Please model this.
Amino acid sequence: MQAIEPGLSLRLGQVEAFATYAISYGAEEEWENEWEEAFLKIRDLPGGFEVRGGRMLGRFGYQNARHLHAWSFVDTPLVLGRFLGDHGLWFDGADLTWLHQDVGVTYGLTVAYGKAVGHEHEHGGGEHADEEHAEHEEEHEGEEHAEHDDDHDHAHGGELAFDDDVTSARLFTQRSLDDFRSYESGLSLAVGDEETGRRMTVFGWDFTYAWRQNGLAPGGRSYIWTTEVLYRDVEDGGSGHDHGEEHEGEDHADSDHDHEGLPGGAEFGFYSQFVYSPNPALDLGTRVGYVEGNDDLETGERFQISPAITVYPDPFRRTSIRAQYNYDDLDDGSEEHTVWLQLGLAWGGAEVR
Model:
């Protein structure tokens, strides 16, 4: 069960609010649940400003602020998962947006600050989770120090994500060229520390072009093309996790292994996706993604291509059936092949964003 997302939107003039709770059942074979978003919004402030506060998906790039049920593919693009984490840029805090709207064009700037949210899954059976943790501690009792270091380094390979305070910004424009063609483009930035304390900066550029055969009227053919390019830089340094207390009393020469001086590095990645709708009941899509990889960050080069077919049995697109294939070319020369089949059910109107 990828996600059950009951949500509620509130609209009272200038005051709006939104909350959604995510429930899932995944590979760990346990039900998990958490508040995905819960924020209050005040719009139409003097000068064209609006402000939000609470828990929210950050306005970074094209896809980050979109909920899973609004995606055109089953999974998140490769580069977004690598640079922003599987859940994306997600924080408890506030953002301020300035908007200028004119005939056929909107442009604006969003600045946000908050505390990055790690997964706060509430697993069924708290006692069971405590027992597993205790068993894990017993397993490592008496392990060789070198083996522990290897395991720790492996666990952090490729798992860089914002931790604690994060600041972000997005400058964007939306323009209608005519009744049939429109585009959106933006520049994004996110700055904060990852879990070992190294400063991490992510830059992004996104561009989306859309065409509709019938223009503002329903029906007809359509397509939408989206590309996002990201660059991530991680500074040298960081103290990592100090395991001194964990190994108190152990007899090894180099007990001071707090990972001072972790190497930094930079890497580049992008994805580009094209979704063509020959009619309102069918979407044909292809997505290409690439991440450069960096040996110092223990992240590997990876290329992915993902064709997908989505069928909508009802005219309002409340029900969807999606088949997707992922081909991954890994840096060690190996390949991965994945097939997804997804059923989606959705009810309700537009969400407050």
Observations:
- The chain has a mean pLDDT of 85.
